[in-house]
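debug: dumping io for the single-chain case to check the tokenizer round-trip. Nothing else runs in this session.
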Amino acid sequence: MIEVAAGSEVGNRYRANFDVVHLARSPLVAVVADGMGDGPGSARAGRVAVDTFAEWIGSAEVLDATVLRDAVALAQQRVGEIGRQLQSLAGCTLTALTESAAGFWITQIGDSRVYRLRDGLLELLTVDHTMAWLGAVHGWYPFESRAAAAARYHLTRYVGHGAHPEPDVFSVTVRAGDRYLVCSDGVAEQVRYEQIQDILGRNGSPESMVRLLLDAAEAAGGNDNATAIVVVAR
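debug: decoded output
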């Protein structure tokens, strides 16, 4: 049995919310997309990518890695067409947590994230597809430098990329007591690791955890759209 909740806030930086959230409960389909920039291509890319992904996997008889990759490939095609129509950038991240008979599948392209709290340990299960992540791994620049800050906005993979890169797709087990967080970078970049660990570790409902996460992002400056989905396994 799982309990889930989702929420999203505009924040103070943008005039509108360019994050897109989709949540279906039985079976679980939890998807977060984050549009690139604040133009029309950003808004349309996120909506089309999420709808395409949900539609494709909803029609599948069995959910597996091939189905998930095919869903993202179709989203790539459709978002690419938006960019060609607008003759401007159309792109977004897409991160999904989906339920199967064997556990959860994670689909990741971009820099939204999936965290898991299990037995008190908070783990980041996904990898950011950014130059900042590569720079951190290879030690290219100091963590607080301007170069590192700029690299956070340089995505190496996203939906709408001309090369149609594939997502990371992998499965994880689910145990009673697990708490999963799917979130955009407006949460991940503003809410400290220790805060996420504390909030997910509480005895409250998923709705209360989502509210606390979004409030924490706002308290940290609200410098981006912030979106969170919390899944609790009972």
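debug: round-trip ok. The chain has seven helices and ten strands.
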